[in-house]
């Protein structure tokens, strides 16, 4: 089974966002980067699939040259190669991202049975890249997937709705966008990292379409510091808390 | 006119849809709603239309697709594309629910238009001026959306930024037919598993008793279950907890888990990482219990108790039981 | 945040292991009104303490660091947060095995018991997951262990709070430190302003930022130490506690591995130096983890992964074991690798306790508190004094360069005389070019280039033959040359010129100048103008703070000359005795004056030939000074000697120094004049003369009586340490400084070996000598005494061993070399009656 996994490098943020002076980006000068969370699950799912079905995993990413760091990390988990479409550092909109990824996947020498990715990225949260890729490639797509099983070229997908799970079936080739909770991603092992150093990260140049959605500024919303009321501690606190419960009508 | 996609699950309208309707009315009072699926999908058209009308839908468009026996995102999108073509709507809006985002993204992909998810405010114009959420609302982004590319603006509304308010309108039912192929129905809910155990689920729970790393381990959650049961609520947890395998992922509250807005969110031994706060900050009352008075969660809480959860929680349970008896 | 008082005795900034230890000890010593603030939350405010690996290997080649570590371990145990896991440093190379022998030596000398060398098989038996086939052996310290430094901090704060002595405010950021008239006035925080007498900065890598607020410098840089935690390790699944196996240090890879619960923690000091500026550190809120846990950069760890795999293939090579956590953890690096402790040189009341590791934290806390409250601490920490730096050492480039160079020395094999490579040749004497022409091999003294020996003197090695005591072992030959001993012998035979410009020189002037010097030093300073006095400077406990010479140049004018390495701290010792009313001043002449030494039996002949002034013994007696004219240059000449020969130190403005050098050089040719480096003039010469050196024989743990330096009279005037000194004079010494000759240098391999200092002195049977105060005997100094034809060792011995002829031994590189006490006390072995000096 040949699997493509699309991944994105995002800033590793704390509890406060610091912006650049022009308020057009997060100031990443003092913070690091990571992989957008759902995509860790996508890679993990891919690794588990090829453990069962054989095949290989190719990572695709649109981003800065530094995204190689995240790609190496996932190569250490078990992906086989990576393709990085380098941008000049500025983030491109969802529509363009999907177009570029679809083109890269399409023109790759490998025919992919499955394209995996996260349902939405941690930073832009556009909820559309997977769906657009599917349309561009003419493939079916299932999103929000938290359970995945593939047998006989057919993917059975589950997505959570409250306590219930909806079941979808889709014939491969397909695009499946997943959510955290699909699996618990493994950590890279040291031998995995050593192997990852020798795996290829190819650079691919693709013309990026004109943006349709243009950022004019970013803003950190007012802190939600509510000036909490301290109920005290110990028994006194517990008593006061139950009074609060009564007051707000949950008891 | 603004078209609001009303997501429903076998006839039950997604509650966030009413917020989306309220939001849409502020842009243009001429709001229409769309329902996809007929009785085969469990929809009672008149009841649903009446509900939507209550929140301001002048017209309720219903595509009674015969093969649409259950939610099928692409089919729903195809129907919406048809309707957009015939109604001349200036915008297509939905709640930012999994289905709302999914269906609208399909519409955008099919029609090659931009799709703007998780909006806080929309000003239709040239360009469209929009404020939307990034990082699950921890950051606000102002964007200009090209009005030519987005001749119909396709957008979803960030949950809980608007309280759903009623504004009774006609809710007149208009049926329409849409060209939906079998291929469009290829991805469709074919089954449901893990039927409700009768317990309260996270999104609908009025009370969530949530635990973090400070609970110390899986055993620490017993007391949370007891308190949740006593208050008729359910248990939640942080990403650290599910990653450690202490609790199932279905209980995770946060950016990558479930976003909740209960009446009471009792955060126990939770420090307050961004990822977690993104999921619980819309709670009506947030109470935090933590040994560290300076933990981030304490700044986001309405009430705090400074103390060790292992000591405080049994007292809380006892107090609840005493109060009840 | 807590409500802060508007006034406090002391504000301690930082709630890491150091700040917490300081507040605890201050409270214990009785101080009240202590305020502690940290900009982060508690109990982990986000500094280096929070991510520290928390293991302690007590052994260090620095006695002071060893003592601070031992004291810290004692405190950690007292608080019940120490787990004795033991630790093993493994060697992959023969060079490292020799170094481990040296580690064992230092362990025995500085009081770290339960240390031994192990074979690979013995190591395998204790650490079953190690590949013993790639190691040659290891150095085990069973007393090594792992601490809970955060818990310790909490307990310490709680204790001070219970005493009613401490107010703590977390999430409180210091915005400014207000200084008025060079003295601390207040601390401004985002939670109010606090007036205070003292401020102590214990903020680790944020130190430079806080120091700048107060107008001073803490020269350190935040730097990365990489570590990762892999797991769960099947073998550790049953682990009942955080640490059950010994911590392993893979010294040759600059790495460590330790079991941590079910995981294996792998840390490294092998990667490229990754240095930051304070501004690069995010706030607590901005950081994903803590502010000092930077994102891990795998590419810097690639090689370390392979080294870890080699050493522990069973665990590290297991593909099912993942990397759970990995950080580029920030810690502090200092340009000379040592902590920065004590009061700032230029702001009264502003203290630093920076650049301190978990292993020294509580010990440093106690030392700081004792020094603040009592004026002296039990443990000597002169090598770490904040005031030790020269101004040029505060430049950003200097700090970065030296810290980068020092980083990989962390686990390195560092020779005691090892010289720095970066930024050399910056601070040079006016004689530098002339010295280079003579083939000078430069050592650094206080950051200044100072010739250690001259290659131009190589022919003297042939001349003196075996008398230069040639060495064959590589270790002792490193940073050494037989030319040193040849220069020594030639100096004693004819005469030598030496460049002493690295000296720190400062003047004390003003109506109250006499009072200041009188109060600062032991010896009588109310002497005739023109006298030169050598004198110790004491700590309140009667231990040594410095030794130096003071010249009285006028009624209200004294000139102090002291060593380059520690002179800046000596200057501060005098400065702290200045009156507040401005009736005495200190002016630093270090950069304005050059100093040339001229010594040897022919020194007078040389000088006479170029001056018309009377330099006869009668006209210019020993221990006097005055201005003479040499050619057309006016020179302050002082007749003293650190080599035990007739001669002068000549002080003059730097711009005329080269001309003087040339005149002496020319005049000296007929008298056999050579240039001599400090290997001879500050090393071998003084050893033969039993002159004590500060930092070796002289330190706060020993007193004047023990050092054999009692002067006939105690002056009437008060001076720092007088009370203790007087008491010591009436007591029997608990140890006595002796000189010993090594009788036979032959090692077990047949090669002759020459100890370099700091080795344990033992009985011939290998028993350690420990005095009744628990102090061990070790070689305070060791080196050649060419004129005596011996290798000489100075050591404090318990009185029962302090007998001439007493047979003892010195442990060196695994051997016990026999030695014999040759001298008890300070009467020189060479020229005992000082006839040469006074001739």
Which key phrases capture this entry?
heterotrimer, B: 325 residues, alpha/beta, Rossmann fold, 2 domains, nine-stranded mixed beta sheet, 9 helices, 29% helix, 26% strand, C: 839 residues, alpha+beta, D-Amino Acid Oxidase, Chain A, domain 2, Alpha-Beta Plaits, Elongation Factor Tu (Ef-tu), domain 3, eight-stranded mixed beta sheet
What radius of gyration of chain B results from the CA coordinates? 22 Å
CATH superfamily of the domain at 7-189 and 221-333 in chain C: D-Amino Acid Oxidase, subunit A, domain 2
- Structural class call of chain C reads alpha+beta
What name does CATH use for the topology of the domain at 7-189 and 221-333 in chain C? D-Amino Acid Oxidase, Chain A, domain 2
* Number of β-strand runs of chain C: 39
Name of the CATH first level of the largest domain in chain B: Alpha Beta
Looking at the overall shape, the CATH architecture of the largest domain in chain B is: 3-Layer(aba) Sandwich
Summed up, the domain count of chain B is: 2
Helices of chain C, by number, come to 21
CATH architecture of the domain at 7-189 and 221-333 in chain C: 2-Layer Sandwich
Q: What is the count of β-strands of chain B? A: 17
Quickly count the helices of chain B.
9
Strand order of the largest sheet of chain B: 9-8-7-10-6-1-4-5-11
Main β sheet profile of chain B? 9 strands, mixed
Distance between the termini of chain C: 72 Å
Most strands sheet of chain C:
9 strands, mixed
String of helices and strands of chain B: EEEHEHEHEHEEEEEEEHEHEHEHEH
| Amino-to-carboxy terminus distance of chain B | 56 Å
């Amino acid at each position: 089974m040949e699997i493509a996994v699309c991944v994105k490098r995002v800033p590793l943020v704390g509890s406060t966002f610091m912006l650049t002076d022009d308020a057009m980006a997060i100031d990443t000068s003092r913070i690091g980067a990571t992989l957008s969370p759902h995509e860790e699950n996508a890679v993990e799912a891919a690794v588990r699939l090829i453990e069962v079905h054989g095949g290989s995993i190719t990572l695709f990413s649109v981003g800065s040259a530094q995204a190689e760091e995240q790609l190496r990390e996932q190569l250490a988990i078990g992906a086989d190669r990576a393709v990085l479409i380098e941008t000049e550092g500025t983030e491109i909109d969802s529509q363009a991202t999907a177009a570029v990824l679809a083109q890269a996947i399409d023109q790759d020498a490998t025919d992919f049975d499955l394209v995996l990715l996260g349902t939405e990225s941690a930073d832009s949260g556009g909820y559309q890249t997977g769906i657009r890729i599917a349309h561009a490639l003419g493939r079916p797509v299932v999103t929000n997937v938290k359970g995945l099983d593939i047998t006989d070229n057919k993917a059975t997908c589950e997505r959570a709705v409250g306590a219930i799970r909806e079941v979808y079936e889709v014939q491969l080739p397909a695009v499946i966008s997943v959510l955290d909770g699909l699996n618990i991603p493994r950590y890279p092992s040291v031998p995995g990292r050593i192997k990852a150093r020798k795996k290829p990260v190819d650079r691919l140049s693709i013309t990026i379409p004109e943006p349709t959605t243009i950022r004019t500024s970013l803003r950190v919303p007012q802190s939600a510091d509510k000036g909490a009321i301290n109920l005290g501690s110990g028994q006194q606190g517990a008593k006061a808390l139950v009074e609060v419960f009564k007051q707000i009508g949950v008891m | 006119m603004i078209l609001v996609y009303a997501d429903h699950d076998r006839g039950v309208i997604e509650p966030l849809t009413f917020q989306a309707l309220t939001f849409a009315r502020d842009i243009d009072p001429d709001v229409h709603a769309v329902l996809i699926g007929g009785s085969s999908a469990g929809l009672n058209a008149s009841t649903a239309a009446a509900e939507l009308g209550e929140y301001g839908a002048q017209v309720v468009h219903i595509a009674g697709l015969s093969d649409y026996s259950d939610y099928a995102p692409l089919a729903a999108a195809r129907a919406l594309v048809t309707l957009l073509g015939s109604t001349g709507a200036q915008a297509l809006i939905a709640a930012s629910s999994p289905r709302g985002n999914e269906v609208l993204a399909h519409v955008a992909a099919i029609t090659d238009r931009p799709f703007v998810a998780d909006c806080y405010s929309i000003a239709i114009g040239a360009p469209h001026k929009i404020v939307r959420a990034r990082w699950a609302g921890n950051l606000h982004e102002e964007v200009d959306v090209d009005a030519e590319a987005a001749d119909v603006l396709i957008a979803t509304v960030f949950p809980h930024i608007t309280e759903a308010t009623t504004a009774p309108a006609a809710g007149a039912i208009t049926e329409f037919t849409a060209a939906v192929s079998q291929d469009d129905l290829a991805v469709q809910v074919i089954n449901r598993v893990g039927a409700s155990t009768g317990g309260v689920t996270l999104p609908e729970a009025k009370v969530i008793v949530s635990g973090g790393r400070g609970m110390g381990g899986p055993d620490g959650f017993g007391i949370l279950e007891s308190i949740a049961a006593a208050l008729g609520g359910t248990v939640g947890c942080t990403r650290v907890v599910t990653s450690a395998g202490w609790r199932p992922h279905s209980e995770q509250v946060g950016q990558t888990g479930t976003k909740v807005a209960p009446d009471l969110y009792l955060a126990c031994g939770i420090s307050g990482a961004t990822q977690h706060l993104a999921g619980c900050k819309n709670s009506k009352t947030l109470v935090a219990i933590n040994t560290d008075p300076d933990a981030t969660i304490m700044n986001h809480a309405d009430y705090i108790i400074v103390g060790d959860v292992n000591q405080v929680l049994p007292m809380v349970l006892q107090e609840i039981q005493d109060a009840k008896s | 945040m807590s409500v802060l008082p508007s006034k406090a005795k002391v504000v301690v900034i930082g709630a890491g292991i150091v700040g917490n230890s300081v507040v605890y000890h201050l409270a214990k010593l009785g101080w009240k009104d202590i305020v502690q603030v940290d900009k982060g939350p508690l109990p982990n405010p986000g500094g280096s303490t929070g991510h520290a690996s928390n293991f302690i290997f007590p052994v260090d080649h620095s006695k002071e660091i060893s003592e601070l570590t031992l004291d810290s371990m004692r405190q950690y145990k007292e608080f019940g947060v120490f787990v004795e896991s033991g630790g093993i440093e493994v060697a992959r190379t023969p060079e490292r095995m020799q170094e481990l022998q040296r580690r064992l030596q230092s362990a025995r000398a500085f009081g770290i018991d339960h240390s031994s060398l192990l074979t690979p098989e013995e190591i395998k038996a204790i650490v079953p997951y190690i590949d013993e086939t790639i190691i040659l052996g290891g150095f085990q310290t069973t007393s090594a262990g792992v601490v809970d430094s955060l818990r310790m901090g909490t307990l310490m704060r709680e204790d001070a709070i219970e005493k009613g002595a401490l107010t703590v405010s977390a999430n409180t950021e210091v915005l400014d430190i207000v200084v008025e008239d060079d003295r601390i006035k207040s601390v401004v925080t985002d939670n109010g302003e606090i007036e205070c007498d003292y401020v102590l900065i214990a903020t680790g890598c944020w130190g430079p930022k806080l120091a700048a607020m107060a107008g001073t410098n803490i020269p350190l840089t935040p730097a990365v130490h990489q570590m990762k935690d892999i797991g769960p390790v099947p073998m550790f699944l049953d682990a009942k506690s955080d640490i059950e196996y010994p911590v392993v240090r893979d010294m040759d890879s600059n790495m460590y591995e330790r079991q941590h619960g079910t995981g294996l923690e792998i840390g490294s000091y092998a990667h490229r130096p990754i240095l930051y500026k304070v501004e690069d550190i995010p706030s607590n809120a901005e950081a994903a983890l803590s502010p000092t846990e930077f994102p891990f950069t795998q590419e810097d760890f690639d090689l370390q992964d392979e080294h870890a795999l080699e050493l522990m293939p069973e665990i590290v090579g297991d593909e099912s074991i993942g990397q759970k956590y990995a950080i580029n953890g920030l810690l502090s690096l200092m340009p000379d690798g040592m902590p920065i402790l004590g009061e700032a040189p230029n702001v009264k009341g502003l203290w630093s306790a920076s650049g301190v590791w978990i292993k020294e934290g509580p010990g440093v806390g106690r030392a700081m508190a004792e020094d603040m409250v009592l004026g002296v601490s039990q443990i000597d920490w002169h090598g770490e004094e904040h005031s030790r730096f020269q101004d040029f050492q505060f430049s950003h480039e200097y700090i970065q360069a030296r810290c980068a160079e020092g980083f990989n020395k962390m686990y390195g094999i560092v020779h005691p005389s090892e010289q720095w490579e970066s930024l050399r040749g910056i601070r040079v004497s006016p004689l530098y070019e002339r010295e280079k022409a003579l083939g000078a091999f430069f050592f650094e003294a206080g950051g200044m280039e100072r010739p250690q020996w001259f290659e131009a003197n190589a022919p003297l090695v042939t001349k003196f033959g075996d008398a230069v005591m040639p060495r064959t072992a590589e270790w002792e030959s490193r940073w050494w040359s037989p030319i040193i001993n040849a220069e020594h012998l030639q100096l004693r035979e004819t005469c030598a010129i030496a460049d002493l410009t690295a000296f720190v020189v400062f003047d004390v002037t003003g109506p109250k100048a006499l009072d200041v010097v009188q109060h600062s030093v032991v010896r009588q300073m109310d002497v005739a103008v023109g006298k030169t006095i050598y004198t110790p400077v004491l700590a309140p406990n009667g231990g040594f703070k410095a030794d130096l010479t003071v010249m009285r140049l006028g009624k209200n004018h004294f000139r102090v000359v002291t060593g380059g390495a520690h002179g800046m701290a000596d200057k501060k010792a005098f400065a702290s005795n200045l009156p507040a009313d401005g009736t005495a001043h200190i002016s630093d002449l270090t950069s304005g004056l050059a100093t040339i030494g001229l010594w040897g039996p022919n020194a007078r002949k040389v000088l006479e030939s170029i001056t018309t002034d009377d330099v006869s013994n009668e006209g210019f007696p020993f221990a006097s000074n005055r201005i003479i004219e040499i050619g057309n240059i006016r020179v302050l000449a002082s007749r003293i000697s650190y080599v035990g020969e007739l001669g002068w130190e000549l002080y003059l403005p730097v711009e005329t120094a080269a001309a003087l050098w040339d005149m002496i050089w020319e005049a000296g040719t007929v008298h056999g004049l050579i240039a001599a480096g400090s290997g001879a003039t500050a090393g071998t010469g003084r050893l033969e003369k039993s002159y004590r050196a500060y930092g070796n024989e002289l330190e706060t743990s020993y007193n004047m009586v023990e050092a054999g330096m009692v002067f006939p009279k105690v002056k009437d005037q008060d001076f720092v340490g007088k009370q203790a000194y007087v008491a010591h004079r009436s007591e029997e010494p608990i140890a006595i400084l002796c000189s010993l000759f090594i009788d036979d240098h032959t090692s077990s391999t047949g090669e002759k070996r020459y100890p370099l200092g700091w080795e344990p002195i033992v009985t011939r049977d290998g028993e350690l000598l420990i005095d009744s105060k628990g102090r061990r005997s070790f070689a305070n100094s060791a080196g050649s005494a060419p004129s005596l034809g011996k290798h000489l060792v100075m050591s404090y011995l318990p009185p029962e061993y302090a007998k001439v002829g007493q047979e003892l031994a010195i442990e060196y590189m695994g051997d016990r070399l026999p030695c014999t006490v040759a001298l008890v006390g300070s009467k020189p072995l060479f020229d005992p009656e000082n006839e040469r000096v006074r001739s």
